[in-house]
Amino acid sequence: MKAWELLSKPGAWTQGALARDSQGHKMMPFDEDAVRWCTLVAISRCYTDRTKVRQKVYSNVGNIAEWNDRLFRTQEEVVSVLKELDV
């Protein structure tokens, strides 16, 4: 699965936390109750060669955490960029 596929499910993306449960509570990224993830964690969940993938995204958006958490960023924007990058 690619990161854009993981984050394209309704409500699967988050800001201001690495991961969240279905009620919006912050949690550890690989907790079994996590259902929402930031872009960095989505990459970590989907790829074993994370460094190469992160570099690809970084070279297009800059700091991934800051880009993910930018005010007024939408799930659709994040998914669109990752899909365009084939990540």
Number of E-state strands: 3
Give the strand content.
5-15%
Unreliable spans are none
Backbone structural class:
mainly alpha
* Largest sheet, spatial ordering of strands: 2-1-3
Number of helices: 5
Distance between the termini: 9 Å
Q: Mean pLDDT across all residues, rounded?
A: 97
* Fraction of residues in H or I helices: 40-55%
H-E order: HEEEHHHH
Largest sheet: 3 strands, antiparallel
Indicate the radius of gyration in whole angstroms. Answer: 12 Å
Quick one: overall form?
A: globular
Description:
The protein is mainly α and 87 residues long. The chain is built from five helices and three strands, in the order H-E-E-E-H-H-H-H. Strands 2-1-3 form a three-stranded antiparallel β-sheet. The longest helix is centred in the middle third of the chain and has 12 residues, at 50-61. The mean pLDDT is 97.
In short:
By secondary structure, the protein is mainly alpha-helical. The protein has helices at about 5-10, 40-45, 50-60, 65-70, 75-85, and strands at about 20, 25, 35.
